């Protein structure tokens, strides 16, 4: 279960042109659309909750603590569910499992909007588990279906779609709750339209998607003993922690430093827009580069710099949000791309993605909570932001390792 030397990987890559990959045909427009439809579902049902949380608490009688649990529950579900995906994919087939997950996502979205607190939490767990399956399966399907030189571009495209739909959901959920029958409950369910579209797009792709067990395929165990896998995992986890912490606390940090609540809200929007732009542009700037060590490290340093600016020069919030957005958007694309690129097969990609996202989202779930505890203890944002800046440097170290042009290599079973 050790990694193979970088030189071997580079020699293998040099033995054929980058565009030549006989096992994987050119990417069709239908496949790209199907991938984007799945990506549109990976955040849409989650990001609108934050905007609706005051109304959810008022309408359902939840306390702030229970409201906080509702917001953290998806990340905890991701962490618990992600390790199960690789083995299930091996037994059922990746496309079949993705279609099943999309079906559960549609049901969970509807259940969450029913007039019951129990349904609110049960539906959240259902849809979060389904999204966890999608999070892990998509890198594996890309690894199987997309030529190696196109992986980063397709990953960046689906990250852009995912981020765009997340921003749209955040923006329209509250106005939608005020204009449709059923108020916030209906607003929680509007994303099911995209789920149904993705379900229909992937149904035909189940044809020929035989379980690897019946096809004589091999199952890749989770690469717990691979140093490269751990580097990919920590890079995924730490960049996720920075993102979810910024989304949760950036407005509060800016307001505490004298910014109006309206301006703080627009700064959060600006941060997300810059992040989307960085996600879209990164493949163009790094085209043809197989070694991503310094790209990952540099993007992480930008994130650390953004938190440092918030500590040292809070008046320069635009600069801070620009650094956070550019660095964070690049880190997200790289973190997801590594889960495909560092695997030698689609089975290894599923195993690596399950490991990276299980531990990664567990780390991410601790971020907002840790920041809140540090703020309550010190009654200041200085220590929490300093901790985030230091973690940004740790992200750079993990990214430098994860960005090596190497594959995890382990025996299959």
Structure description:
The chain is mainly α and 413 residues long. 75% of the residues lie in helices and 0% in strands. The chain has 16 helices and no strands. The protein has helices at residues 6-14, 29-39, 44-60, 64-81, 85-92, 94-112, 117-145, 151-177, 183-189, 192-202, 227-256, 261-285, 293-312, 317-341, 346-378, 382-402. Helix 3 (44-60) packs antiparallel against helix 4 and helix 6 packs antiparallel against helix 10. The longest helix is centred in the last third of the chain and has 33 residues, at 346-378. The protein is globular and about 55 Å long.
Gist of the model:
This protein is mainly alpha-helical and 413 residues long. 75% of the residues lie in helices and 0% in strands. The longest helix is centred in the C-terminal third of the chain and has 33 residues, at 346-378.
The level of helicity is over 70%
Q: Main β-sheet, in a few words?
A: none
Beta-strand portion reads under 5%
Number of separate helices: 16
According to DSSP, the number of beta strands is: 0
Find the structural class using helix and strand composition: mainly alpha
Shape: globular
Uncertain segments of ≥5 residues (pLDDT<50)? 1-24
Write out key terms for the chains shown.
413 residues; mainly alpha; 75% helix; disordered N terminus
